[in-house]
Amino acid sequence: MAQYPYQKASKYPDLAAVYRNCSGPGGLKLAEYMADAMDLQPGWKVLDVGTNRGYQTCFLAKEFGPFIAGIDPGRNAADILMMNAREWGVEDRVLALQLGVPDTKFAGESFDAVYCTTTLEMLRGMHGEQGYLEGVAEIYRVLRPGGVFGLGEPMHRDRPIPEEIYPYVTQGGRPAPWSVCFSTLDKTAALLQSAGFEILKAKEPCDGPLWWQEFVTYDPEVGDDKVVIERDQNRWVTFGCIIARKPARH
Description:
Elements: H1 15-20, H2 27-38, E1 45-49, H3 55-64, E2 67-71, H4 77-88, E3 94-97, E4 111-117, H5 120-142, E5 143-156, H6 166-170, H7 178-181, H8 185-194, E6 198-203, H9 208-218, H10 225-232, E7 237-245
Parallel strand pairs: 1-2, 1-4, 2-3, 4-5
Antiparallel strand pairs: 5-7, 6-7
Helix pairs in contact: 2-3, 3-4, 9-10
């Protein structure tokens, strides 16, 4: 049972549609949780890193009122985001671009906030910890002083991988096994600090298991991930959320 109230996400109860148009666990529940934690404000200029099909982007624009530049390097991702933005009635508050980190093309200090969920761990899978750090450094660069960075992503607890899921999380995967893509909450927070961020909040939300269960129930491309979540029983796989701030100038 959900512990967070999800007053805005509950307006969109079709979870099959949500998970067709989002990536990873959480969907619009994750977006609302993160936006509240970031204290997202109407009129802010926000960068959404890794939009996928854009439902979270559209939800944030509609329910919280910022202007959002959504970037994703995927083929057709920008076109699909704008199609969804028109359907949500927020095309005047969304700009979709086929870009990714660390090469966003934006000027420094362009945004009041950066929102990024279920994205940077993929960068780690493709380019290692150095690639992840380069992505974080770019996010730091484009934030204004005092700007907020909200990061939510699949993580793992600091314990051995259970035998029941070991083959699934150490072999194959897109773009790499989960054991390569995922890190711990403490290590991720330390990495953000090394890039210059101040950590405001870092936690594994109580509803993380709910988000994972929704993902394996409704995501049309869940595959063997369903086996991992069902066999793991919340022992190794988790979900972490970090709210960080670029220090203000004095």
